[in-house]
Amino acid sequence: MTSSHVQQPAADEHDSAYDGLLGNDAHWAFGTGFEDPLAGVDTTIPDGIDAAELASYCVMLGDDALVYAQRLSEWTSRAPDLEEDIAIANIALDLVGQARLLLTRAAAADPSIVPALPDGSPVPAEDALAYFREAGQFRNVRLAELPNGDFAELVVRMLVLSTWRLAIFQRLVGHSDPVVAAIAAKGVKELTYHRDFAGRWFVTLAQGTSESRRRLEAAMAGVWPLIGELKSPTAVESSVGADPGEVAQELDAVVAQVLSVAGVTPPDVHPIAVTRGGTGRDGMHTEALGRMLAEMQVVARAHPMGQW
Amino acid sequence: MPDNTSDSREWPLYEVFIRSKRGLNHVHVGSLHAPDDGMALRHARDVYTRRNEGVSIWVVRSDAITASSPDEKDPLFAPSGDKVYRHPTFYDIPDNVPHM
Question: Which chain B residue is nearest to residue A29, measuring alpha carbons?
Answer without folding.
Answer: B51
